[in-house]
Amino acid sequence: MELTAVPATQFSSVQLTDILNACFEAYLVPVTQSVEGFVQRFSAEGMSLVDSRVWLAGDEPAAIAIVARRGSAARLAAFALRPAWRGKGLGRKLMQELLMLLQQQGIETVFLEVIRDNHAAVALYQSLGFTRRYGLCGYLSTELLPPVPGVLQLYPTLSLLRRAIEESNSQLPWLLDPLTFATLPCQVVTLEHRAFAVLTTAGSRPVLSFLWVEPAARRQGLARELLMALAQQFPGIGTSVTVPETFTPLFAAAGYTPLSLQQYENDDGSGRREVGLARSVRWTAKKQHGPSISLSFPASYPFVMAKRGMRCVKRNCWLFCKIRPIFSIRIT
After folding, report:
1. Which residues are identified as catalytic?
2. I need a labelling partner for 326 at 20 to 30 A (CA). Which of 93, 188, 276, 279 fits?
């Protein structure tokens, strides 16, 4: 049976939550969202209902993709099929459809996270052209070290986020981008007004979600002292699995232990491609009189070029291009 893609705008928050939970049944990691948790989490991450999709088999939901969007960048916030539809090669087909749709909507770069031990998903995304950007870890405070001097003080949340956004310049993992915390229930604490931590407070206990030290105060041990102070004031505090693994030595020095669950953040590589032509089809005009002309077009354009008397001389292995068309002409 063919699956029909339907925009997520056609469903209520209650329906989307139920569909998400059903599609993640028997998943590698248990996933159960409440309606409130669904709305709060995905709204903070930038959920675009216009770009998100539910695939139906008749009237029954078979798969779901939650897409977040910030400008011309998108993130696959969730993608899953119901158990009965897994193992049939549909994941690749649906992802190709979704990525082509995002390209048509002006998306230039797509990000996603994948659990490291989910080998099938890792292989799928690699085959679609996604490459590893960060290894992501989570950390839990397990060792109380000697008290550190200084007292944690509250600090205005938006004041910190404005400062951090200006410096981050979209170089952090999507889930650590300061934009994520603008709509989440959270509080900011500071040590000496030079080191800052964002604690999200939606659950029963605070979660350390973001750490920022003023540029002029870095490499002075303030981040470690702040982590130790947080562990003393909030015993057992931890992070989500969103922290680049390069920070493991910092957390270890402050008495934090890595969680067993780890992820990769991947992107489709479009931001690193020289003039955006790595996934293209090269076409050459049939030489009749005068010089031939070679053009590089996105791989979605072969039907256009074939109609204009051109033939494909080299086709990249990727099936589609998730960037806006950029053309080049070479006289030979």
Report:
1. 113, 125
2. 93
